[in-house]
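Ops channel
N.P.: pipeline sanity check, posting one input/output pair.
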C-alpha cells in the first residue's frame, strides 16, 4: 500500500475557521458561560485552548477561565515512552467542581490521551460535565471516546500520521498527513 506523503489538509485559514466554528458551537451548547472553563492538553491542545478562549471573547465579549493539563504521569504507556519523562506542569488555577469543562486537544486518535486527561481532571475536582473539542478526528479508536466538537474529520490508515503544526511551536499553522504513525 502506498502512503500519502506530506499532504497539507488544513492551512492557517482553515484552522482559524475551524476554531471559530468550534467556539460558536461551544457557546450554542452551553447557555451559561459562567459554568464554562476550557482546559487544554499540553502542548498543542493548550495553544488551541488559548485560541478558543480568544474566539469566545471576540464573539461574546466574555473571558472563559483556562487551564492546562500535563498528562505525562497519567499515561498508560509511560514506561514505553521514556525512562526520564519530561514534565511540563499542569496549571489549573480555578475550582473545576461543578464546572462544564471543555477539554481541548489537537488530534483524537485512539482515545487514550483523552482518558488520561479525564483521569487527571477528576483528581482536581468533580466537574458537572466534560466536553471534548479536537481540531482533528482521525478515527481508529481503542477506547469509547467521541469528540463533542471537531474541526475536521480526516480518515487515515494506521500507517499514516497526522501532524498539527501551530505557529506557537512550529512557526506555521497547518495540518499535514505524512509517513509512519505513532499510536498515542
Amino acid at each position: 500500500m502506498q502512503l500519502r506523503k506530506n499532504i497539507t489538509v488544513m492551512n492557517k485559514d482553515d484552522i482559524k475557521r475551524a476554531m471559530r466554528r468550534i467556539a460558536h458551537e461551544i457557546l450554542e451548547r452551553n447557555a451559561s458561560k459562567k459554568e464554562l472553563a476550557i482546559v487544554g492538553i499540553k502542548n498543542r491542545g493548550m495553544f488551541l485552548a488559548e485560541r478558543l478562549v480568544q474566539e469566545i471573547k471576540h464573539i461574546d465579549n466574555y473571558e472563559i477561565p483556562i487551564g492546562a493539563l500535563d498528562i505525562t504521569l497519567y499515561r498508560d504507556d509511560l514506561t514505553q515512552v521514556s525512562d526520564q519523562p519530561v514534565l511540563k506542569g499542569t496549571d489549573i488555577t480555578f475550582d473545576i467542581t461543578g464546572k462544564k469543562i471543555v477539554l481541548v486537544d489537537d488530534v483524537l486518535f485512539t482515545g487514550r490521551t483523552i482518558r488520561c486527561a479525564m483521569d487527571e481532571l477528576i483528581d482536581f475536582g468533580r466537574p458537572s460535565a466534560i466536553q471534548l473539542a479536537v481540531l482533528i478526528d482521525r478515527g481508529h479508536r481503542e477506547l469509547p471516546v467521541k469528540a463533542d466538537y471537531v474541526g475536521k474529520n480526516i480518515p487515515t490508515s494506521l500507517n499514516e500520521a497526522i501532524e498539527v503544526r501551530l505557529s506557537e511551536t512550529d512557526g506555521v499553522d497547518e495540518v499535514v498527513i505524512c509517513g509512519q504513525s505513532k499510536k498515542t
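N.P.: looks fine end to end. The chain has one domain: 13-78+87-156.
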